[in-house]
Amino acid sequence: MKTKAWILIKASRPLGWLIAPLVFLLGLTAFGAPLTPVALFQLILLSIPYCILLYGVNDIYDFEADKLNPRKSVPDSVEMDTEVFPLVKKLAVIVVIALFASAILSLNPTNIVAMSLLLFFSYFYSAPPLRFKERPPLDSISNGILYFYAPVLIGASFGATLFDIPIQAYLITICVMGIHSFSTVMDYSADKLVGDRTFAVVLGKRTASLFAVIVFIIAYIFSGFQGMIVGYFLILCALLAGIITIIPSERIAKYFFYAIGVGFSVVAVFEVLRYMAFFY
Q1: Is residue 272 a contact partner of residue 25, using CB atoms and an 8 Å limit?
Q2: pLDDT tens for residues 212-264?
Q3: Number of neighbours of residue 277 by Cβ within 10 angstroms
Q4: Contact call for residues 171 and 42 (beta carbons, < 8 A)
Q5: Would you give the DSSP letter of residue 163?
Q6: Domain range annotation of the chain
Q7: C-alpha to C-alpha distance for 27 and 115, rounded to whole angstroms
């Protein structure tokens, strides 16, 4: 049981536990909404439980490919298949029910729509028959929705409607799509080896990074974030992606992707604190 718990923890990607809650809080605080009991319940569900759903489903449907992928740990994959997959499936169903039930409890149409989007793309990103992760650019579009647009909209729904969401939220969603396309560059060789049709594999490493450059520049120009920490972050992202467009090194792309991930988290925390100071 202890071994199963440890494998389950690893499968849920501990580094991802705070991503959805942080984006949720960004939407909540941006509109000065209170942390109601239902909002708190959703905040908790979007941490470890949601990660079990998102990454657990991914591991189940990527099992065969992961066994061939030199970047993956074969012993862990085998152990996941024989001992933890049935548990992951049961937990995933429970998480889906709990998340959707929390949306119903909110009595909020925007919350229900946003939660439906989150659950739909979280499951079908990896699962057949849609399996968006092998249908570029739908793989990047899915990531923009499930990593930013849906969770930020869920949080914002406690203080706004779907029609109140500013253009900046849509531009940042597109940027997250760019971050995903950029991330496929570092996995290019491994994905191509196992036959995964990612953005970079199908369209090329330079195209994947160039797409990121374009969306970062567009977001910077039209978002009104010039002179703000978000604007500086967008410039940094465009520069890093631009370097990889010129020199499509998978190793360098990996370090740049990690830098972008850390930067995104820092900027998100800063913005949450700024909104909290403004409204509260």
Answers
A1: yes
A2: 999 999 999 999 999 999 999 999 999 999 999 999 999 999 999 999 999 99
A3: 9
A4: no
A5: G
A6: 1-17+35-129, 166-280
A7: 14
